[in-house]
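Hi V.,

You were right to ask for the full record rather than a summary. Here it is.
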Amino acid sequence: MPKLYGWVREVVPDSPADLAGIASGDLVRTINGAPVRDLLDYQFYASEDELLLGIERNGRPLEVLVARAPEEELGIRFGEEPAPFIRICANKCVFCFIKGLPERHQAQRGLPLGMRDSLYIKDDDYRYSFLFGNFITLTNLKEQDWQRLAEQRLSPVYVSVHTTNPELRRKMVDGPRAGEIVEQIQRLGSIGISCHTQLVLCPGINDGDELERSIGELAALRPTVETISVVPVGLTKYNNMLKVGALPPMRPFTHEESRAVMARVARWQERFAVEPGAHGQPFVYLSDEWYYVTGQPFPPARHYGGYRQIENGVGMTRKLLEEWRAARRGLAEVEARASGRRLAIVTSTMAEPIMRDIARDIQRATGGEVRVVAVENGFFGPLVTVAGLLCGADVRDALAARLADFTRDDVILCPRIMLDNAGTRFLDDVTVADFEATAPSRIVWAKSAEDIAAAARALVWEPADVPTR
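Predicted structure:
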């Protein structure tokens, strides 16, 4: 595969690209004379109804005219952009996720402890921020990047602020121009780019009065700043108590410290929600971890508006609960006649209370046996409590120990978020094929509350009626 973006993996039959003669293996170099460097260029320049594509076929340059109806898909499927084209981060953040990963090629239980190579790529790429919601620091932007942001209006982007105190941010981020975050956000606004921001809090570093300062100064940058999320630092057994420079060691928040953070944020939320034009939206949001750690109830759905920072763990639980409330209505139509099949729901230790409530709903509706298997994270350590960071070996061991009596007629429901985008591997490189082959029962991968309800119906219906992926 060529090491360039624009390699055509396939062409949709009878699409405008197919009718124009574009073929698999072609390399799209230009669109209407503009260079195609990556997916952003393609999306930006391919928005016209008539396109002159400059392509390379077997080393020979060609020009192909493609015409399509308004809003009609062009029909080109590209190969993946290779990792070397990701903008690598030049910062040395005190809580960088790379520091929380194991050293590569160590051994544990006969398995490679190091994870797949792509997870060790430290990116800070504004293109991935716009396309996928990845958070960036803005410190690595070059002048041509600013020009491209302005030209293509790549809005919104997602910005890791952590603190607006220039001196403190230089210590926490330790990267080029780290102390210029307020000016950088102002520059975004000047070119018509808005942003969603996050403050990853570390105890004794950027909480307390520093948190107050950051929220206040980011609020002054509205409407360029659309939202703020406040997230507790995530630590593994590899970087817990790690000391960097003159800053205190990294450590998790205590229960009392978490409540204090929530109280501070709640005061700001009350203030913002009643401002003219706020429509009750709090502008600053707490990630779900704070509510789990303290046992405080999750806010209602209206609190989260459009769930604009859900990928950052803000409102994910409330959204699941709302979706489950709708999905479980379908279970009311199921006759409670247990078939003898059992259902196991795999989850993280953090989400265990919520999943136990869902399990009780299923048991009441179907009369079947439902177990919740909360898996402790042995790979990263017990400080890591989210399902998205569970590894294949830990889940496999938990199933073997706690579902030894399950048979192939039973169903095991696993969160799809544990897998990579392709749905083929866990973080520790255990393949889905190997995992499913050694599981005591049939595995169903759930992305949504409706998937959970479908698995629940397997307790009274035939397994063939339940999706597997």
